[in-house]
Amino acid sequence: MKKQILKISGMTCSACSNHVEKYLKKQAGVIDVSVNLVLGQALIYYEDNISIETLGKYINESGYKFDGVYNEHEETKKDNNKIYLIILGILIIFIMYISMSHMIKLPVIPFLNMKKYPINYAVSLFILTIPYLIYGHDIILSGIKNLIHKSPNMDTLVMLGVLVSFLYSTVNMILIILGHNMFIENLYFESVCMIILFIKLGRFIDKNSKEKTTEAIKELVQVTPESALIKTKNGEKEITINEVKIGDILIVKPGMKVAVDGKIINGSAHFDESFITGEAKPAKKDIGDNIVAGSINYDGIVEYKALRIGPNSTISEMVHLVLEASNSKMPISRIADKVSSYFVPLILVIAILTFIIYMILGASLNESLIHMVTVLVVACPCALGLATPLAVVVSIGNSAKNGILIKSSETLEIASHIDTIVFDKTGTLTYGNLKVSKFYNYSDYDDKELLNIVANIEANSTHPIAKAFTNYKIKDLKVTNYEELMGLGLTATIADKKYYLGNEKILKKIVNNYKIFEKILTNDGNSIIYLVEDKKIIGLIGVKDIIRKESKQTIEELKELGLNIIMLTGDNETTAKIIGKELGIDNIVSNVLPKDKTEYIKKLHTMGKKVAMVGDGINDAPSLAMADIGISFKSSTDIATNSANVIINNDDINRILTFFTIGKKTLNNIKENLFWAFFYNILMIPLAIGLFKKFGLEINPMIASASMMISSLCVVFNALRLKKIKLRRD
Hints:
The protein is α+β, with helices and mostly antiparallel strands. The protein is built from 24 helices and 26 strands. Helix 3 packs antiparallel against helix 7, helix 5 packs across helix 6 and helix 10 packs antiparallel against helix 13.
């Protein structure tokens, strides 16, 4: 299975995006599709034998335009709509003056006086309407095309309203030319102009506002420089970013940006990685450390080897992850999708019934048509279609900009329902920077030799405990038959001797009467590691971890949100309780294997709990996948980050609190948007029909088009409020 983000143009409302989505899902080889109205994109999962060209053909067949594969570095085309809007905005003042000056007691242009020169008056308005029809031709053609494809959308409603008004006015103009001056009051050319102008103005403002929602994504794309400084035999040379190849030796000087992802081979410096981690404090990088494209060198000359370029770079991966999440759909969006699929056909029926009922009740053709056109123009499926995707794009983009990567928009909605958070201990609540605090030697080796054996075995492990022995490796030993025993420890062979390194559980399998070796290590918060050589205990090591400075405050604030906090660890009970007490965690489950962690998550589910799991190691991966939301860190193991729904780009546990805040506010924002969209249509459609005439409340097509524009903008501006969520930077 493959996946790709494709660009689509021509979609104007949720009816459009729903139609494209449904059409593509029906095609052979297409596994799943999610279309985003705001971004004008489709996230498509498809079989390996399907080509991009075929997918593009499907999109074109659906009635919309395929604009190619998404490329984050592609420049946005210049929009000339502002110029047209200014010109036609000035012209509309002249049109309104011609048609309405006599109504508001202003001087009438003599040769355009509707009473004295009805033909001049009618023909001038007809001619002045033509530029607006040309300017709005895309709306008219789109409306006709979608009607032919049996997928009517907002353009269809506007097209019908505009053409009915224009054709009705044109027929009356012809009758006036033929001498029937009584039809002079039945001209609505100015309404045609005003409807098109308001729709276009609304879309112009809407487009600019939507672009603000994607600012975070654009900023991610733009962080990488356009050129790089490469080291050659003849010295330094500046090349374009596209000329960089994997393995090239590049140079970054103070004030410059890192061109591509790489590893430092010479020099050291502090780098600003805030665009990745959300952490404003520069990070010190030395030889052997990785640096990412776009980070800024503060204070040193560094040579680094290019490792990841183009689509494989950290930035590209982040952008695509953010876009995939933005293109996915939240469960709540199904409400809007369901309503939108019936909305436009329902409005067409209501408009036709309005016309028929008015005619039956004895109203004039003129009055009946005006009410029908008003119903067509006032209905607004745009607000419904924008309610969810706008909020999602803002929240996910803003989260990514501040170091929180959310893989799916559905995760945002689930976050608001979480009632229990399960934390792994080592590397999550603690730094994972372990150190040997106590050591007991029961062997014939001296202490350095024994610790060297441990260090050589641990050198093969990615577990945080292995880092505690890095400095104890004084001599390389040949390690064979290395194996990780999930939840127990490690085993390996050195010089034909079998060694085991692990917790108390490993002893039950290989050693008898091991309790005589128990010491008071755990009373000081140590984790105990047993070293066994050929079924004989030869060492007892106490390894101590350090609690993250922000862990306690984060736990307190999560508890204030009403969340139940649980610490789930493979460490021994005494150590776990010491850590738990210091953090204020009462619910502690210790001595658990990876499968026990997964079973515990299952148990919480059977109790009706909505669970988030926070972990960073290989042994946490199954429980991260099992939880409703899995949260991990960028520095975690690959399997942990792959299993997680949310990735924190730095090790700041405070971001977990921010994530839940964003999830809650996003869902509330969507509910507000949906409420406004439904409220608007429930109020305005009866008003357009004329049900409140006896109360003196009535609207015409011009007011209808203006109110429809305002409805969409209310949803847009409400979604943009999510950009104001402040992240803590303790």
